[in-house]
Write a structure and sequence with these properties.
- It comes from Methylobacterium dankookense.
- InterPro entries: Beta-barrel_TonB, Beta-barrel_TonB_sf, Plug_dom, Plug_dom_sf, TonB-dep_rcpt-like, TonB_sidphr_rcpt.
- Belongs to the TonB-dependent receptor family.
- Keywords: Cell outer membrane, Ion transport, Iron, Iron transport, Membrane, Receptor, Signal, TonB box, Transmembrane, Transmembrane beta strand, Transport.
- The chain is mostly beta strands.
- The protein has one domain: TonB-dependent receptor, beta-barrel domain (Maltoporin, Chain A).
- It has five helices and 37 strands.
- The strands form six sheets. It has a 22-stranded antiparallel beta barrel.
- Helix 1 packs across helix 2.
- The termini are far apart.
């Protein structure tokens, strides 16, 4: 049975393309702001515009999103503690990407949203619009590291839910293990996406966009109080429509997204917010280019427009509920049902003879449905000189995943004429099937004790995970297998207020990840486990919106899968890795519309016990491929003041530097350094005449010098995105 599962996994990785194939190798298994009525006035200041929703979220914790947002800075986020603890008092490294920053950079996917945050690697697989695939502190976070409104966003195989950035209010990156609050996950950290929510002030926004590669897109975001509800109900409707080609021949990046939401707040103590979304995307089946021997990336695209339309539908419905029994006793419940399904056809080049490329094809049809619920009870009390915030919670998640797949042949490609899309490619017969389900139940408790200048955070959690799998052919699945795991994880952290706004801290945290399958003796693999030691200092300059942070970390993950040295046809859970390094970050709002972000990361990620999938030999001490050891990122905007002759004009730009890395896990070849530049120019027409208030023109350019770059990971190389320009006309009211 385990051999069948492994063969199925290999087939799926081939179909997914090199981007997901390498992930199997790297993923190592797998200040509270409150009001009687929510308030969210139109910003009208700076380049961000839109509606400030951080302080107007229906819940103040457990998925309610950051608060105290000014420009690019935020004072608090519930992601790190599930309470509204100020960021400088959290015992781990945290970054918030606010709505104004997302607007200024006009991000088009989750990877772009994370591109300027420390500790993240987002260009490992070059240009690939199919998946939100990224790393945090060297660990893959694609499957276990993406959360939405405090709930884990399950992803399996090719059924990976996509985040539409326009529908988000903010993103919070919590670096380091988060299992003590969230259960199974990546040791590198998580990204929690906060959905846009209703506000009780009428507003509206429309974007019309156009760009190269025939990109056309329209965005809309409208909402406000429900008439006749006496200020107890509000609604919001957000959506986009996009039609776009890409630089991949015959490949599109089309999307339709609509997200209605509704809030009912019958009193100052009770709120209920309904959150829904439907999204349909049409993407390329592959983003890979043919690789010649010696880590040379050709310009020969592997896909073919005749059989390359990856169509995916996703939908979600859920709610965030909060009730305050007293000012110091709060109950919250967050629930979400998610569905993802799609057809994944692809063509790949298997070899080249003369001027003809031999090709094969594949087709996968997948369906994923999941439900998640998190119940929280928060209490605050004082015992003598110690102030306590106690949080208890019980959460549950279940998913069902089904796959049908098959492989076939495709006519050869004439390299001389590149006859893409001019030959019929038959659909492969579906010959394999996989069913999988997983249940996770977690019980957690957290104590935050504040005494004088000290803040002690203690978190503990017990998880029970059960997974059922069956594989075979359509209509004839084999006998299902069941694997049960349990683990206790936790965190202990200590913060000390050294001076006003300056807080050094230290923490220790653990994590775990279940691993499906069995060893040569039929025994289930034990979960991969990890631990981190982190220490740093955070500084929020008093009287300003300037924050800075420095963190050093040491992460070790053990019991990960590696080939059995005594039987290379099997695996054993004895591998281990170590990630060490440090990060430095500065975020500043210097004036309305004038912001700055700086981020530097030094990372040393090495296999301490692992076997090469290529040579079958140990690669102990080798560095993980494709992840730069050093990276520097900076982005800034400047809005000319009203007294300037250039009033209304915003200029901005960014630089992203990635140092060298190895192209393969055997560490035989290095990737070169890459430096990319982005730019922004915008103009608010109200500076010409007040009657034009709300009208804004904006141009964003990415990789403005059209740097032709590649990145190789696990022995396969990927092409980066060429220069991209998007112009926008925006009207806000």
């Amino acid at each position: 049975m385990s051999i069948t599962l492994r063969l199925t996994a290999v087939a799926s990785l081939v179909a997914a393309g090199p981007a997901l194939a390498q992930q199997a190798n790297v993923q190592l298994d797998q200040i509270s702001v409150e009001a009687t009525r929510p308030a969210g006035p139109a910003s009208g200041t700076g380049g961000g515009g839109g509606v400030i929703g951080g302080d107007s979220a229906a819940t103040s914790g457990g998925g309610g999103g950051p608060s105290g947002v000014v420009g690019y800075t935020a004072k608090a986020s519930p992601t790190a503690t599930k309470t509204n603890t100020p960021l400088i008092e959290t015992p781990q490294s945290v970054t918030v990407v606010t709505r104004e920053q997302l607007n200024d950079r006009n991000v088009q996917d989750l990877n772009q949203a994370l591109a300027y945050a420390p500790g993240t690697s987002t260009d490992v697989f070059g240009f690939d619009p199919r998946f939100d695939a990224f790393y945090i502190r060297g660990f893959s976070a694609t499957y276990d590291g993406v959360f939405r409104d405090g709930l884990r966003q399950a992803a399996v195989g090719l059924a990976v839910p996509r985040i539409e950035p326009y529908g988000t209010e903010a993103l919070t990156i919590l670096r380091g293990p988060a299992s003590g609050l969230y259960g199974l996950g990546s040791p590198g950290g998580i990204v929690d996406v906060t959905t846009k929510r209703p506000v009780f002030t009428p507003f509206g926004e429309v974007w019309l966009q156009g760009g190269n590669y025939d990109r056309y897109q329209g965005n809309f975001d409208v909402g406000g109080p429900v008439e006749g509800s006496d200020g107890t109900m509000a609604y919001r409707l957000t959506g986009i429509v996009r039609q776009s080609d890409t630089f991949l021949p015959g490949a599109t990046d089309d999307r339709v997204n609509i997200a209605p939401s509704f809030t009912w707040k019958p009193s100052a103590d009770t709120s209920f917010t309904l959150l829904t979304e439907f999204q349909r995307s049409k993407l390329p089946g592959t983003s890979a280019f043919y690789n010649f021997p010696g880590f040379v990336v050709s310009r020969l695209y592997q896909g073919d427009g005749a059989f390359n339309a990856f169509t995916q539908q996703q939908y979600r419905v859920g709610y965030a509920f909060e009730h305050r029994f007293t000012p110091d006793l709060i109950f919250r419940q967050n629930l979400r049902y998610y569905g993802v399904n799609g057809d994944f056809p692809y063509v790949q080049i298997d070899g080249i003879t003369g001027l003809r490329a031999q090709r094969s094809s594949g087709l996968f049809i997948e369906d994923l449905s999941s439900i998640a619920v998190d119940n929280q009870l928060e209490g605050r009390f004082v015992t003598g000189p110690v102030a306590h915030t106690l949080l208890g919670g019980l959460d549950y998640q279940h998913y069902d995943w089904k796959r049908l797949g098959g492989f076939g042949t495709a006519p050869g490609l004439d390299i001389a004429t590149l006859n893409y899309g001019r030959q019929f490619i038959p659909k492969p017969a579906l010959s394999l099937a996989v069913d999988q389900s997983q249940d996770q139940l977690g019980l957690y408790l957290q104590e935050q004790a504040k005494f004088d200048r000290f803040m002690l955070t203690l978190t503990g959690r017990q998880d029970w995970v059960s997974q059922h799998s069956a594989s075979g052919t359509p209509g004839a699945l084999g006998t299902p297998t069941t694997q049960n795991d349990s683990a206790f994880t936790g965190r202990v952290g200590l913060n000390y207020t050294l001076a006003p706004g300056m807080v050094p801290y230290a923490s220790y945290a653990t994590t775990f990840t279940p691993q499906v399958g069995a060893d040569v003796n039929g025994r289930a693999f034990k979960p991969a486990t990890g631990e981190q030691i982190e220490a740093g200092v955070k500084y929020a300059i008093p009287g300003t919106n300037i924050t800075a942070a420095f963190a050093g970390f040491d992460i070790r993950q053990t019991s990960i899968l590696r080939q059995d040295p005594n039987n290379i046809a099997n695996q054993v859970a004895t591998g281990s890795v170590r990630s060490t390094g440090f990060e430095a970050e500065l975020i500043a709002n210097l004036a309305p519309g004038t912001n700055l972000t700086l981020a530097y990361t030094h990372l040393d990620f090495r296999f301490t016990r692992q076997t090469s999938l290529v040579t079958r030999l140990p690669i102990d001490g080798n560095a993980l491929s494709g992840i730069p050891g050093d990276s520097f990122k900076a982005f800034a905007t400047y809005l000319f003041p009203p007294s300037s002759p250039l009033a209304g004009l915003t200029i901005g730009g960014g630089v992203r530097y990635a140092g060298p890395s190895f192209a393969d896990d055997e560490n035989t070849v290095r990737n070169p350094t890459v430096t990319l530049f982005d730019a922004l120019i915008a103009y608010d027409f109200a500076a010409l005449d007040p009657k034009y208030k709300g009208f804004r023109a904006q141009v964003n350019a990415f990789n403005i010098f059209d740097r032709d770059y590649t990145n190789c990971q696990a022995g396969f190389c990927y092409r980066g995105a060429p220069a991209t320009v998007i112009g926008s006309l925006i009207y806000r009211w």
